[in-house]
């Protein structure tokens, strides 16, 4: 009897990643999913003591590019543990410079800046567009943020013909040879109904000594960027070009993510690192709350934190190395219980002195740092340690490093094994229970990347484990992952949230 695995989770992930070309869009996509399942938005600037209650589901955002969501168990008490999954919303990309207007040899070009450690050669000869956010001035004089995503290709970074440069390996200068073209000067002049003399006149008008326009502290957007790009952004934002005060735009590949492989077992996509883990943690949290009594007997808080700026070190206000998660945990640790007379879960109940509730919560909590892992590469087998060669569609990978580039240790592995054993099996498994896990360490003669895990474990003092689904071509504009691993991770994370309150106290170390 043949078996056809379900691709429902993978296909849902594709809709998520295709709608999320930037961290701003990813957070918006997560918000939509959370709100459709009853989560309510709260603000950092507001008091929480009067609005947060056991049994409630909430989320907050920072900068529109990081989001924290949580559900409070009905048996929660101050000082009880919090089960957390952390991931990140950003990926390496090209960002439009503050002054991007360029032209050369009859071509219109756009100045861009590299963000993160991308495989930049993969950005050549792709159909590119722009996405991000625009800050617009409203009719009442206020300023608000608008999401922008231009859906058609408008830029390309063309390679030099092999006949003109046969260098091997392919090399280029990121400052002078990574500028995309966006059209022809002549075509743009024709669109505007202008001539070369008109262009010279426009240039004279932009000269402060030759212009009588109103003073502007910074050169206006219309002079810093190609007018047509500004018009496209304004159209997407639903405003006029003059209403746009500033924007943050990045380039993205317009080719849609898709299922691939002879047996539909692969995913070909941009931003697998790390939107796959952002998606799986969100869906794992939502799935753990699917039944009517989802939090009835839960003494914990179930939380996800999706941070921006991991790819550039996390040291920003919305990064994992900020006060975002520590501040949220401090406030949650003292949320009062549903009833002062409730004496359930004595092992984790807190004394009458609530001054140490925060420290008690951190000491009993657990963080899963979820960031994509490396699959073994069939063309480069020597790059992998002989007994640690993760394969796609064989389960989420636990990442281990003796030099603490990952935060995993033995107690964390024990906890995750117990959680995986209790997880509902993926639709790709026949007659099996639980979900599979794999182990990975990097070779001693190779460098090792890092994640938000070590920095958060140091800042919080909470037990932490690093994991992720295996993929190829990490940081390429087009990455490859396993289609079935999406469901593996969602089921694993669901089980973590459901069973952490039971399993966590059984692993006694200190």
TrEMBL record:
Task: Cite a single GO BP annotation.
Answer: proteolysis
- Which of UniProt's keywords are assigned here? Aminopeptidase, Hydrolase, Metal-binding, Metalloprotease, Protease, Zinc
Enumerate the catalysed reactions.
Release of an N-terminal aspartate or glutamate from a peptide, with a preference for aspartate
Which CDD domains does the record associate with it?
M18_DAP
Cofactor(s) essential for the protein: Zn(2+)
> EC no.?
3.4.11.21
Name the UniProt record assigns to this protein:
aspartyl aminopeptidase
Native source organism of the sequence:
Patellaria atrata CBS 101060
């Amino acid at each position: 009897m043949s078996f056809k695995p379900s691709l429902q989770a993978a296909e849902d992930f594709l809709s998520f990643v295709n709608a999320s070309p930037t961290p701003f869009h990813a957070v918006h996509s997560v918000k939509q999913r959370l709100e459709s399942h009853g989560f309510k938005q709260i603000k950092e600037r507001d008091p929480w003591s009067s609005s947060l209650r056991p049994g409630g589901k909430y989320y907050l955002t920072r900068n529109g590019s990081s989001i924290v969501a949580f559900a409070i168990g009905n048996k929660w008490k101050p000082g009880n543990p919090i089960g957390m999954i952390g991931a990140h919303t950003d990926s390496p990309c090209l960002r439009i410079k503050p002054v991007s207007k360029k032209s050369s040899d009859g071509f219109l070009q756009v100045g861009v800046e590299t963000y993160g450690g991308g495989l930049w050669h993969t950005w050549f000869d792709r159909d590119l567009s722009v996405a991000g956010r625009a800050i617009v001035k409203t009719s009442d004089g206020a300023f608000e943020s608008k999401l922008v995503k231009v859906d058609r290709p408008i830029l390309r970074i063309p390679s030099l013909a092999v006949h003109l440069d046969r260098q091997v390996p392919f090399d280029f200068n990121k400052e002078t040879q990574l500028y995309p073209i966006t059209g022809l000067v002549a075509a743009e002049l024709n669109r505007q109904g202008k001539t070369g003399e008109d262009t010279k006149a426009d240039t004279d008008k932009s000269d402060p000594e030759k212009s009588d326009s109103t003073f502007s502290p910074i050169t206006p957007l219309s002079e810093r960027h190609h007018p047509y790009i500004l018009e496209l952004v304004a159209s997407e934002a639903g405003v006029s070009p003059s209403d746009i005060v500033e924007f943050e735009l990045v380039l993205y590949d317009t080719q849609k993510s898709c299922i691939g492989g002879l047996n539909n077992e692969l995913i070909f996509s941009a931003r697998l690192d790390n939107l796959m883990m952002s998606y799986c943690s969100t869906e794992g949290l939502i799935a753990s709350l699917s039944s009517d009594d989802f939090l009835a007997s839960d003494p914990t808080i179930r939380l996800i934190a999706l941070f921006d700026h991991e790819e550039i070190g996390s040291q920003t206000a919305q990064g994992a190395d900020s006060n975002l998660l520590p501040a949220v945990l401090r406030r949650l640790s003292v949320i009062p219980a549903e009833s002062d007379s409730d004496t359930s879960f004595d092992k984790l109940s807190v004394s009458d002195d609530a001054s140490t509730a925060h420290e008690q919560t951190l000491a009993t909590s657990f963080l899963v740092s979820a960031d994509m892992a490396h699959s073994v590469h069939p063309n480069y087998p020597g790059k992998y340690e002989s007994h640690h060669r993760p394969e796609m569609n064989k389960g989420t990978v636990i990442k281990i490093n003796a030099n603490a580039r990952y935060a995993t240790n033995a107690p964390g592995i024990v906890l995750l094994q117990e959680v995986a054993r209790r997880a509902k099996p993926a639709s790709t498994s026949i007659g099996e229970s639980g979900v599979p896990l794999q182990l990975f360490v990097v070779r001693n003669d190779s460098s090792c990347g890092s994640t938000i895990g070590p920095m958060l474990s140091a800042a919080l003092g909470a037990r932490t484990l690093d994991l992720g689904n295996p993929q190829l071509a990490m940081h390429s504009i087009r990455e490859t992952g396993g289609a079935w691993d999406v469901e593996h991770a969602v089921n694993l994370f669901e089980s973590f949230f459901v069973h952490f309150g039971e399993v966590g106290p059984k692993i006694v170390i200190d």
